[in-house]
Amino acid sequence: MIILTTSATAQNLLIIPRTYISKFTMEIRDDSTNVIVDYPITTATLSGNYLSFSNIFAPKLVENHFYDLYLYLDYNFWNSNNSFWNLYDIFWQKDSDYKEDFYRDKIFCTDQDIDQLNDNDYYQLNKGQYTSYDGFNNDYIVI
Questions:
Q1: How many domains does the chain have?
Q2: In a domain, 99, yes or no
Q3: What pLDDT was estimated at residue 63?
Q4: pLDDT exceeding 70 applies to what percent of the chain?
Q5: Parallel/antiparallel/unpaired status of strands 45-47 and 36-41
Q6: Is residue 14 in a domain?
Q7: For residue 71, what are the domain limits?
Q8: Residue 115: how many CA atoms within 13 Å on its side-chain side?
Q9: What is the C-alpha separation between 105 and 124, in angstroms, rounded?
C-alpha cells in the first residue's frame, strides 16, 4: 500500500513493476466515489530496482480515502503503438481498446506523519478526537 498526502505539490512514487517503462498511463480510482482520473506519465526513471516518477494530483486526493492505482501501457497513446500489424485484427483507423497493465496497488491518503521504521509513528484513526482524563485517585476498591 502506498501512502500519499492531500498536498497540491508533486508527490514521488517508488514502485517495483512487472516491466520497467518510462512512458505509461496512471489511473486512480476513488473507492468511495468511484471517480476515475487518468494521468499520463512521461518521465519515469529507474532508481535501483525501483521505477520512480512524480505526479501532481488534480483534483487533490481526499483525506482518509482509499484509491486503486492502475498503471498500464495504452496502445492508443501517440507514438507508442506496440502492437504488431499482423496481430492487430482491427482496422488501423480505429482506436484499440487493448491496455497492457504492469502494476496495481492501493493508495491511502492521510496527512498524518507516519514513520514506522524510525520513530514508531503509526496511523491513528481518532488522532486528536479523543483525550483521556486521569484526574482521579483509583488506588483502592470500595466493597
A1: 1
A2: yes
A3: 87
A4: 62
A5: unpaired
A6: yes
A7: 2-109
A8: 3
A9: 22
Mean pLDDT calculated for residue range 116-128: 64
Asked if residue 121 is part of any domain, the answer here is no
Cross-strand partners of 37: 28
Of 37, 12, 15, the residue nearest 105 (C-alpha): 15
Residue with the bigger pLDDT between 8 and 138: it is: 8
Place of cell 512487472: 18
**Cell 488506588 belongs to which residue?**
139
Q: What rounded mean pLDDT belongs to the chain?
A: 80
Please determine, for residue 137, whether its predicted confidence score (pLDDT) is greater than 80. Answer: no
DSSP class of 91: -
CATH (domain of 32): 2.60.40
Whether 68 shows a pLDDT value over 90: the answer reads yes
120 falls within a domain: no
C-alpha cell at 22: 518510462
Contacts with 53 (C-beta within 8 Å, 6 or more apart), sequence order: 12, 13, 41, 43, 44, 45
- For residue 64, give the nearest of 24, 33, 90, 21 by alpha carbon: 33
Instruction: Measure the CA–CA gap between 87 and 84, rounded to whole angstroms.
Output: 5
